[in-house]
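In the current project phase, we have settled on a layout for protein records. One protein thus recorded is set out beneath this paragraph:
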Amino acid sequence: RSSKQTRPTALDPAIEGLIAGWPFAAAHVTDRSLTVVAANAMARALLPQYDVGTNALRSLFLDSETRDFYRNWHKVTAWAVRLVRSFVGQDPNPELLDLIDELSSESKRFRHLWSHYEVKHGTSGLILIDHPRAGPLDLHFQHLVVPGSGHTVVVYWADAGSPSEDGLRKLAAG
């Protein structure tokens, strides 16, 4: 498996408690290098790559399971690279810069997108998932920065009453 595990950064336990209380919204928290430092049960059921210690960006580009998971993988990867460029502009974190070097070397898709120098500060959108147990899911997402901590909470949810909400409820039931 190509996803390396790195040591998670300390997180305020109140944030972990907050996301744990969202049974039908998947949520994970990343540090400045986009390594997952916390994830609720729904996030882990949605995608095992959201487990603590996994780097979300590395998984997106190097794990073949992740590529197959997103029905709009090309759009998600383009969005992710633009967002990472904005992160680097705000905080040139050495771990994130090392990850960019790694992905530039190991992922043709990342290398191509990185060469375009596009920057986007957008923190929300729609992802289209093909989940092996829940089927197709259309989920909204939002990045919520925790000021002064270096952490970002990423939340995924479905429209109320939609087939995607039914799929999330199926995942929550186990």
